[in-house]
Amino acid sequence: MKIIKHSGDIVEFSSEKLKKSLLKSGANTGTVDEILETIKKQMYEGISTKQIYKMAFSLLKKTANAHAARYNLREAIRLLGPAGFFFERYVARLFASEHYTTIINLTLLGKCVSHEIDVLVKKNEVIAMVECKYHAGREAASDVKVPLYILSRFNDLKDRNHPIFNVKDIVSSCWIVTNNRFTSDAIKFAKCSGLNLLSWNYPEDNNLKTKNDSNSLYPVTCLTTLSIAEKDKLLILDVILVKEIINNSECLNRIGLSPNRMKNVLKEASELCRYI
Asked: What are the domain boundaries of the chain?
């Protein structure tokens, strides 16, 4: 059966690919098989992947909110927009979870001009600038122009003394992080130029998806027991990760949740982060 991707491309439906993504939600094999059968019965020639996703999400939510939340990860990261402001804070949290010291939104003076840096990180005395490229559209990709531009900024900053963590720090490394993907030319250029890339699916074994699952770095936008407005309120309070709710449930009270709703949100958060 032919289905239509977000990009508009027409491809053959793969039940194995869908099954694999459903299993990653944490649902057991029996549940996943039942969901697959239900979806197959409702499918038709030319159905969109977006519609298939909606059906899968709805069916997973009936089994467990945490399963649906985990399945919703990529969309949840996209919801850290619209301008990418909260995506930068999410990326800072990601580096912090790997024992980096982080600073966000700092302006540094280069050899030629000044530069606003999204995130600066330090680990083992190495300081790196991290540039975040947020895309609202699911199919958008960061092409070779992105590392070309960021390399020029990095070259203007590196090997100069900057008052960052200490008075005379040097920025000697550079990362580019995107919520979508990089084109093959962008990856090739970055490798050749010594730039570090991180995207939804790159590097293959240590990308945004795998880092999330390994370290429970789920953004609060994953949660199915909160409304969009409530998620936005948490982000404004600088509550970016689900695990931060578990460690500070008072933030749920601050956004006006009743005790019963707080209980439901905390239950989903705990199951999502495997705290119970």
From this structure: 2-63, 85-214, 219-274
CB 169 within 8 Å of CB 161: yes
Task: Answer whether 249's CB lies under 8 Å from 237's CB.
Answer: no
Work out the burial of residue 119: count CB atoms within 10 Å of its CB; fewer than 13 is exposed, 13-18 middle, 19 or more buried. Answer: buried
How far is CA 124 from each of CA 95, 100, 121, 162, rounded to the nearest angstrom? 13, 9, 10, 18
Largest CA distance in the chain: 65
Within 13 Å and on the Cβ side, how many CA atoms surround 276? 9
The CB density around residue 19, as the number of other CB atoms within 10 Å, is: 15
* Closest listed residue to residue 197, CA positions, set 214, 183, 217, 218: 183
Spacing of C-alpha 160 from chain mean position? 32
Structure tokens at 28: 């057991």
Query: Has domain 85-214 been given CATH number 3.40.1350.10?
Result: yes
Amino acid at 105: N
User: Whole-structure pTM over 0.70, yes or no?
Assistant: yes
What are 114's strand-pairing partners? 109
Q: Taking a C-beta distance cutoff of 8 angstroms, is the pair 143, 129 a contact?
A: no
pLDDT per residue as tens digits for the range 55-111: 999 999 999 999 999 999 999 999 997 777 899 999 999 999 999 999 999 999 999
Which residues are CB-neighbours of 27 under 8 A, at least 6 positions away? Answer: 35, 60, 63, 64, 67
- Angle, vertex CA 103, rays to CA 146 and CA 120, nearest 5: 35
Joined together, the tokens standing for residue 107 give 């302006």
Q: Which residue has the tokens 């590392």?
A: 147
Which tens digit of pLDDT belongs to each residue from 205-240? Answer: 999 999 988 888 999 999 999 999 999 999 999 999
